[in-house]
Amino acid sequence: xxxxxxxxxxxxxxxxxxxxxxxxxxxxxxxxxxxxxxxxxxxxxxxxxxxxxxxxxxxxxxxxxxxxxxxxxxxxxxxxxxxxxxxxxxxxxxxxxxxxxxxxxxxxxxxxxxxxxxxxxxxxxxxxxxxxxxxxxxxxxxxxxxxxxxxxxxxxxxxxxxxxxxxxxxxxxxxxxxxxxxxxxxxxxxxxxxxxxxxxxxxxxxxxxxxxxxxxxxxxxxxxxxxxxxxxxxxxxxxxxxxxxxxxxxxxxxxxxxxxxxxxxxxxxxxxxxxxxxxxxxxxxxxxxxxxxxxxxxxxxxxxxxxx
Length: 308
Fold this sequence. Notes:
The strands form 3 sheets. The protein has a 5-stranded parallel β-sheet. A two-stranded antiparallel ribbon has the order 3-4. It has a two-stranded antiparallel ribbon with strand order 6-7. The protein starts with 12 loop residues before the first helix and ends with a helix. It folds into 2 domains: about 15-85 and about 125-205, 3-Layer(aba) Sandwich (Rossmann fold), CATH 3.40.50.300; about 210-305. The protein is of the alpha/beta class. The chain has helices at about 15-20, 30-40, 55-65, 80-85, 90-100, 110-115, 125-130, 150-160, 195-200, 210-220, 225-240, 250-260, 270-275, 275-280, 285-305, and strands at about 45-50, 70-75, 85-90, 120-125, 140-145, 165, 170-175, 180-185, 200-205. α10 (about 210-220) packs across α12 (about 250-260). The relative contact order is 0.12. The chain has 15 helices and 9 strands.
């Protein structure tokens, strides 16, 4: 499948809204504004919010809509430079050294130049993100930064300041054009202010009922209209109670899809109870709803729609 030619960046907030809408990402104007400014100013965009509210999806939509490569650095505890930036293909280097020696090459400098070349360099996401050409810089998603430690965070700050990496054996590799950087965090820990100051910031919140309903209608177009209305109303009320983990937009879409697969046209107590595992991911939350809280919320939703 041929790659899509890179598209021009949006020239206004309205064009940014249209770009997101065309990819079925229903964003509020505040998000579209900070995204437009991030693209215009070539500044990283730092997105913070609960899991499942659509932070990662923004990077995917940008890459698809702009015809850019999406390079994703999935952060985790213990992430280090060799996993994030680059490493050498040691096995291939050893084979090359043995072949050179067998051929009678004994010049150590020549051997070193041969094995420490681009041919044996394994580019990890950070280095890959810095190798885009002008007008076609990739979208670089640094996902769930809060999962890494502060040492890696400090290293990343240096990368985002200069958009360059030094490989001792090869020299400094600079981005011809800075990548479009999206940083996400679920706020399991605070990110240092120095890195935040390097970025434009936006808190991605749960959508209101109107926007969430529009998302469901776009993402699950086969869902019955009444079912979509009741699913969104139920989840909106569900987020008002104290759960260990509130369902995000991703869970709303999954639940509407699951209920559609079951040929449901509206919510009923038995179906809600049986499908809570699609919506909630912790047993304590599921037990709470099965103990009566879920029935109460469903009754309130049904009463609200009956009242018109």
